[in-house]
Amino acid sequence: MPSVTRRTALASAAALPVAASLKPEPGLAAPPVLPAPEDQAKLAGDRPLFGATTWTLPNGLRVVLAESRRVPVVGHYLFYAAGAGEDPAGRGGTAHFLEHMMFKGSAHVAPGALSLAVAREGGQDNAFTSRDVTAYHQTVEASRLPLVMRMEADRFAGPLIPPETVEPERAVILEERRQRTDSNPRSRFWEEFEASLWGPQHWRGRPIIGFEDEIRAISRDDLMGFYATRYAPANAVLVVTGDARPEAVRALAEEFYAGVPSRPVTPRTRSAPPAAPAAARVVRHDAGVREASFLRAAMAPSLTFGDRQQAWALEVLAHLLGGGQGSRMHQALVETGLCVSANASYDGEAVGATSFVLSALPRPGVAPEKVEAAVDDIVAKLLQDGPAEAELARAQRQITAGALLALDGIGAAPRMLGSALASGLPLDLVEFWPRHLRAVTLPQVTEAARAVLGNAPATTGWLLPEGTAVPERRL
User: Fold this and answer.
1) Per-residue pLDDT of the chain (475 residues; tens, 9 = 90+)
2) Among this protein's residues, is 99 annotated catalytic?
3) What pTM was estimated for this model as a whole?
4) Is there a single domain that holds both residue 369 and residue 305?
5) Residue 141 burial by CB count (10 A; 0-12/13-18/19+): exposed, middle or buried?
6) Are 461 and 321 within one domain?
7) What is the rounded distance in angstroms from the CA atom of residue 236 to the CA atom of residue 63?
8) CB neighbours of 17 closer than 8 A, spacing ≥ 6?
9) Core vs surface per residue 143-174: b (16+ CB within 10 A) or e
């Protein structure tokens, strides 16, 4: 299951203007829908979004509680500050492989018993591995929190990882790779594109699931070593959200998690981005695609690497450049009939260097070079003149409006909080991020755009149907 960061949790914010622009039927009034005063304060950054409290157990485990009594349900999430970025050299996919093996039982919980117990209670459980974190989570009726805490803590303290289950699970993972990547032309191209930008053995250039030869090379000793050095209380964050009381969560955390032995943690040691991309341009033809795809990605700073202040400006830039209707790419590429879709994306909460990505799907019959030239023009104009005040205001308004969507669901809060904290970011960054976004200025956006889109190492890619002419690079 994919990770959900603040960026992905709020991605639907761009749809809000669409809904707001729909005209009511004749004769029907359209009363304005305004946030409640409390929510308005949160959007302005004057009040915390979740009002979370946090404390640390003696063994180093950080516990976070975000209460919400809208429904009698709790979310229980255990994040480890270890993802695919921590995979050993030549063993890409280790973090993801271990995630699978953590479901093979523990000292007092039989294989499959945790998932079965949660299902019997009408709940849900799952796990995900991202570049930066691995997380295990359950959503259950509020009174069943002790059950999932006990079983998850037992898994934390000592997974079995039975030797006889390693090869069958390796086969499952290889099949997962075949279904999700090898059999999908766009996924194969994205994997090659990432490796072309960062290098195939740079931690950001390797796929989270791993290359096939490296998946085959992972041993049980590799998995046990990763667990021993990364799955430590001081390297984990427990997040509980929903209908739970502070005193009860404190008591349960002490009862079940305080006994997990503390042990040394191997710190993250992520290398800096390369001075130049492995390949500045990659063009592939594939008989399995009918429509062309355009990608351009530039290396970029984040809230944990490089010029951290630029991260907020780059988030605003991504929205005003390719954040749905009203954005520059939508106006110049989609509304003109050149493309079916056009987007810009950026994840500022990544650990280490990240990328700023432009993407577009040309309409059938539109020459690829015409689309690339239009993208070049969009970027050139932005770098020369900078954005307009109205564009900045629109981006800030729409991004922060997504906070209301996050507050409505039980799943967004733990993922936003846990992913950020496990990535080394402070709690206040999540609670008051609307304040940071609203503080971004036009000069900051222009400076960040020129630094990343104008000067940073970048790769341009095209995935084309067989027989399509290779687009000429415009100098």
Assistant:
1) 344 455 554 443 333 333 332 233 333 333 344 455 555 555 555 789 999 999 999 999 999 999 988 889 999 999 999 999 999 999 999 999 999 999 999 999 999 999 999 999 999 999 999 999 999 999 999 999 999 999 999 999 999 999 999 999 999 999 999 999 999 999 999 999 999 999 999 999 999 999 999 999 999 999 999 999 999 999 999 999 999 999 999 999 999 999 999 999 988 989 999 999 999 999 999 999 999 999 999 999 999 999 999 999 999 999 999 998 999 999 999 999 999 999 999 999 999 999 999 999 999 999 999 999 999 999 999 999 999 999 999 999 988 886 666 666 677 889 999 999 999 999 999 999 889 999 999 999 999 999 999 999 999 999 999 988 887 765 5
2) yes
3) 0.90
4) yes
5) middle
6) yes
7) 9
8) 324, 325, 326, 398
9) ebbebbbbbbbbbbbebbbeeebbeebbeebb
414: closest CA among 249, 302, 300, 259?
249
Place of tokens 């709940």: 123
Q: Give yes or no: residues 187 and 109 share one domain.
A: yes
Tokens of 58: 């003696």
- The Cα–Cα gap between 247 and 209 comes to 39
32 Cβ partners below 8 Å, 6+ apart?
Answer: none
Establish if 5 belongs to a structural domain.
no
Q: Which of 67, 86, 99, 152 is catalytic?
A: 99
For residues 65 and 197, state if they share a domain.
yes
- 10 Å Cβ neighbour count for 251? 12
Q: Which residue type is seen at 18?
A: V
The CATH number of residue 374's host domain is: 3.30.830.10
Residues 204 and 312 in one domain: no
Helices 309-322 and 389-408: crossing angle in degrees, nearest 10, is 100
Residue range of the domain that includes 415: 281-465
